[in-house]
Amino acid sequence: MSDELSAFFSLAVTERLSDSVTLRRIGEIPVVVVDHPRVRGVVSLQGGQLIAWQPTGSAPGLWLGERAGWQAGKPIRGGVPLCWPWFGPAASPSLPSHGFARNLLWELVEHDSDEDSVLLTLRLRDSEATLALWPHEFTLDTRIRLGAACDVEIEAHGEFVATAALHTYLPIGDLGTAEVTGLGAPYRDNLLAEDVVDAGGAVTPEGHVERVYTRPEKTTVIDDRTLGRAIEVTHDQAGDVVVWNPGPELSASMADLTDEDYRHFLCVETARINTPIEATAGRPGRLALTLRLLPDA
Q: pLDDT band at 223, cuts 50/70/90?
């Protein structure tokens, strides 16, 4: 078992739901721990957030920060945080950045296992607290399938328009040695505040990067020369793909990152920013991704 996951598997079991699925608690955060012959993983009920995924015989497929405080209401840096119902800074400083879904407690409504994978379904509904932040009734489901591949899908029911991102933290050996391809040509460089057309559709971040690719390809690949593997991200229903790393200066100002953490992850985010998700009475809004590890790439 990897060091990244060992702490979760040493937690006391509060409820055993099946041979492969248990409920546990780390700090103030309840978590679902998956221990299956084909895969191990952890999902936080706060945020409906996948925080660890490791197929048997592989290195971890997600990055998770060591400085997480596991405090209720405080975002968890790492895994696949869900930014919803807005992406980025809020319209008012009194509202949480990247929405409220990642800060609230979700309900585990279903779990199922077969010989290859485990499927978890989590749900968040509107409440007095959410209506005070965003005046819409909703039901938001997240389905997470863990196996040799990893699927994360959100489905939003109601009548509203929302922006969203699956803010995926991917582990890399060292910043500057991992190339991201399959991004498409045009992007918005948020650091330069300008639109750019890059014929190559590729980037090898070496410091702070914050790009929103507005016509992404279906599949993005992170080719990691240091670790000698690649990670494939397939986007479903995405309008944008975001590539982000805080770089050394911004990272130093973030209490939940060590001075070296920024060197060991890249965020490649499946998103709907410029073309928001629209949910109607008869048609829910969707956004999904699939992760695969490609050790021979």
A: very high
Tens digits of residue pLDDT in 1-23: 456 688 899 999 999 999 999 99
For residue 71, pLDDT over 90 is answered with: yes
Does the active-site annotation cover 208?
no
| Confidence (pTM) | 0.96
Cα distance from N-terminal residue to C-terminal residue, the chain? 24
Bridge partners of 105, per DSSP, are 46
DSSP per residue over 172-192, as a string? -SSTTSEEEE---SEEEETTT
Q: Which residues of 210-232 are buried (b: 16+ CB within 10 A; e: fewer)?
A: bbbbbebbeebbbbbeebebbbb
Length of the chain: 297
167 annotated active-site: yes
The CA–CA distances, whole Å, from 241 to 21, 41, 49, 214, 222 equal 32, 25, 19, 7, 13
Could you say which of 167, 210, 235, 264 is catalytic?
167
